[in-house]
Structure formats: C-alpha cells, structure tokens
Amino acid sequence: MMNQDDSTWREYNVHGSADDAEDQPIDLFASSNADDAYETIQYDIDDETKINIRSETDYDKSTGMSVWKGSEVMCTYLRQNSDVVNNKKVLELGAGCGLCGLVCRMALNPESVLITDGDHQVLTNLRYNVELNGLQLADAATLKSSNATISCPQLIWGKNHAIKFAEQYGKQDVIVATDCVYIPQSVSPLFETINELLDPSGLFLFVNTCASACPMEDVLNIATEFGFDCFDDELWYHDDDREKKKHPVHVFRRRKEV
Questions:
Q1: What is the end-to-end Cα distance of the chain in Å, rounded?
Q2: Residue 94: burial class (beta carbons within 10 Å; 0-12, 13-18, 19+)
Q3: SS3 track for 130-184
Q4: Does the predicted model carry a pTM greater than 0.90?
Q5: What per-residue confidence (pLDDT) applies to 57?
C-alpha cells in the first residue's frame, strides 16, 4: 500500500544527493518483480508475543525486502535492555521488513513507534507486516490521539527531509538502525537525519553485520563530526559474537558541552 504522500524514491538513491532524490532514477537493490517469492517467518519473542514477518526469499534482489542478521541482533539487545525504549518515542530508520520496530511496539511498551524506510516498494511490504500482526496504522495526526501508536511514514535520509519529518512527528527519544549502511556516501545523510530528529538526551542505536564498503571507523568519524560519541564500555555483543568481538551494538549519545 502506497500512501499518496509517498514519493517514488528507490533505495539506491540514498547514495546520491540526499535532497535531490527525485532526480536519481537508478535502482540497484529493491525488487521490481511483483511475482517475487515471499516467505513468512514467525519470531517467538516471548511466551505471549509472536511476530510474523513477510520477506523475500532471494537476498540477491533486495536489501530492504529481507530480514538481516543485524535486526535480529538489535532485537536481542532491545529485549535485554527494555528500559531503553520503555515509554519512549522510538524511530527505526531504513527499517526494511520492520522487525525491530515491531518488537518494540509489541513487546517493550514504547510511547510510540515510527518504522520508516525511503524506498516506496519496501514501505508497501513494511506496512503489510504491521497489519499482518494485527496492528492499526496511524498517521501523524492520529499517532498521539488514538490507540494506534505505530506508523510507517516514508523517510528519505538527509537534512531537508528530516526537517520536514520533524514538523510532523517531532523529536524522538530513541533512533534505531541496523544493516543499512553499506557504502560511504550514505553515512552523512544518515547522521544529518539523526541530528535533526533525535532528542538532545536521546540515544542512537546502530549495528552493522552485513558486508559493507563502509568501515565502522568511517561511521564513527562522521558521527564525531556531527557531535555524537560512542564509548567502548557501552558496546554490546550478542552471545554468538562476544568471543570474537564482532558486530557490536553501538550506543551513540550527543556530546555534552563542557
């Protein structure tokens, strides 16, 4: 389902100019084949919470239409650190199939959840997954005034897009992103977006487990340029990765002025 306010932006555009996305028609990743095979995966979050996710079976065709390891790692972190999102406004960037946002909404008692992506085809599947789990989608006008505390608006990364988004949805307490940075050109638009949308005392949670042309060192350097710090003593490792110290969840905070 495509909302009338959605642009026809596609996933590859994030690697070009963040604010001229409509002028960049190149599409390398997101699927355009309506007959692509889907599968539905059930995640048993706890004894009472089961989440169903529809995704494509062919990882070679799409990044946003498949569930990646990073989202599963982040979900484990969030469940073990539920106070991070309890009664908080949560925003997921580059959400793809939406697993992290759905875990937050269905199991961790947030104030509200915004599950976003830029690619309009990915958004269609994302909204499908929200409704597949029996949740009512809200828009900006009803997010605070109804029981529908989850929404899936389009969010293309970049300062100008983020400013407009903030006018509708306000600042967020927690921003989550997983396996969505795989080329250096995408990092600055990512942090432009976070800089505009994260509350001054908020947290940005990031993990990258997929193959990437963008070293984590580059992400940390650009984060520093935007005034965000990540400290080694807050790195969190999944049990599967702790021994080799691979794929940690990074917790970014705004640098405090001295």
A1: 48
A2: buried
A3: HHHCCCCECCCCCCCCCCCCEECCECCCCHHHHHHHHHHHCCEEEEEEECCCCCH
A4: no
A5: 72
